[in-house]
Design brief:
It is a single chain. The chain is an alpha+beta fold. It is 15% helix and 15% strand. It is built from 1 helix and 3 strands. It has a 3-stranded antiparallel sheet with strand order 2-1-3, with no helix packed on it. Strand 1 (41-44) and strand 2 (47-49) form a beta hairpin. It is globular. The chain starts with 18 loop residues before the first helix and ends in a 6-residue tail after the last strand. The model has no long low-confidence stretch (mean pLDDT 85).
Length: 72
Protein backbone atom coordinates (compact mmCIF):
# COMPACT_ATOMS: atom_id res chain seq x y z
CA UNK A 1 0.00 0.00 0.00
CA UNK A 2 2.80 2.43 0.83
CA UNK A 3 4.36 2.10 -2.62
CA UNK A 4 1.10 1.75 -4.51
CA UNK A 5 1.98 -1.58 -6.07
CA UNK A 6 1.38 -5.20 -5.20
CA UNK A 7 4.09 -6.60 -7.44
CA UNK A 8 6.93 -5.29 -9.55
CA UNK A 9 9.73 -6.69 -11.66
CA UNK A 10 13.17 -5.26 -10.98
CA UNK A 11 16.04 -5.55 -13.42
CA UNK A 12 19.41 -5.77 -11.69
CA UNK A 13 21.31 -3.87 -14.37
CA UNK A 14 24.46 -5.79 -13.43
CA UNK A 15 25.61 -9.35 -13.82
CA UNK A 16 25.01 -10.09 -10.16
CA UNK A 17 22.67 -8.59 -7.60
CA UNK A 18 22.54 -9.48 -3.93
CA UNK A 19 19.50 -9.33 -1.69
CA UNK A 20 21.05 -6.32 0.04
CA UNK A 21 21.57 -4.50 -3.28
CA UNK A 22 17.97 -5.16 -4.25
CA UNK A 23 16.74 -3.81 -0.91
CA UNK A 24 18.80 -0.65 -1.46
CA UNK A 25 17.37 -0.24 -4.99
CA UNK A 26 13.80 -0.65 -3.73
CA UNK A 27 14.43 1.85 -0.92
CA UNK A 28 15.81 4.35 -3.45
CA UNK A 29 12.76 3.96 -5.66
CA UNK A 30 10.28 4.05 -2.78
CA UNK A 31 11.63 6.34 -0.01
CA UNK A 32 8.40 5.98 1.98
CA UNK A 33 9.49 2.42 2.83
CA UNK A 34 12.20 3.76 5.10
CA UNK A 35 9.73 4.30 7.93
CA UNK A 36 8.88 0.59 8.07
CA UNK A 37 12.10 -0.93 6.72
CA UNK A 38 13.33 -1.99 10.16
CA UNK A 39 10.15 -4.04 10.58
CA UNK A 40 9.96 -5.61 7.13
CA UNK A 41 10.49 -9.32 6.69
CA UNK A 42 12.05 -10.49 3.45
CA UNK A 43 11.61 -13.83 1.71
CA UNK A 44 13.44 -15.20 -1.32
CA UNK A 45 11.61 -18.08 -2.98
CA UNK A 46 9.38 -18.49 0.09
CA UNK A 47 12.34 -18.70 2.52
CA UNK A 48 12.96 -15.91 5.00
CA UNK A 49 16.23 -14.05 4.63
CA UNK A 50 17.91 -11.00 6.14
CA UNK A 51 17.58 -7.65 4.36
CA UNK A 52 21.37 -7.31 4.43
CA UNK A 53 22.00 -10.77 2.97
CA UNK A 54 24.86 -11.22 0.50
CA UNK A 55 22.92 -13.99 -1.25
CA UNK A 56 23.20 -13.53 -5.02
CA UNK A 57 19.82 -13.47 -6.73
CA UNK A 58 19.02 -15.37 -9.92
CA UNK A 59 16.67 -14.23 -12.70
CA UNK A 60 14.00 -16.67 -11.59
CA UNK A 61 14.05 -15.71 -7.89
CA UNK A 62 10.92 -14.30 -6.30
CA UNK A 63 11.57 -11.77 -3.54
CA UNK A 64 8.76 -10.76 -1.20
CA UNK A 65 8.82 -7.69 1.05
CA UNK A 66 6.45 -8.61 3.88
CA UNK A 67 5.18 -5.60 5.82
CA UNK A 68 4.62 -5.61 9.57
CA UNK A 69 1.25 -7.00 10.55
CA UNK A 70 -0.85 -6.56 13.63
CA UNK A 71 -3.48 -8.69 15.17
CA UNK A 72 -4.08 -10.82 18.10
Amino acid sequence: EIVGSGAEVFEAGAETCTVHQLVQAVQSKYPKLERIMANLVLAVNLEYTATDSAKVLKDSDEVAFIPPISGG
